[in-house]
Amino acid sequence: QVQLVESGGGLVQAGGSLRVSCAASGRTFSTRVMGWFRQAPGKEREFVADIIWSSGSTSYADSVKGRFSISRDNAKNTAYLQMNSLKPEDTAVYYCAAVVRPGGGFDYWGQGTQVTVSA
Question: Which end of the chain is more exposed for a tag (fewer CB within 10 A), N or C?
């Protein structure tokens, strides 16, 4: 089992920056990929970014490329999402998730943290 806890959400003006964190606990040695997803009111949850835990290789949704950056701190078992040049359309609940099974999907999810970007 892996437990994920997000933190760092809040209210920011358009053009501003925010960093959200995801602390993992439990069987963290089995973590293979950590990802960030978001869900805006009335919309489906969408992929934002992910990082391969061992190599640090990253991938991003087109909508955030060049503005968001995902990273991890292996020693702290924590993943981060640095969000710059925020837009009102980035407003959503941001969730982190983990892949622990080889070839598996995102089986573990955090409770989410609200990010609100005002115009």
Answer: C
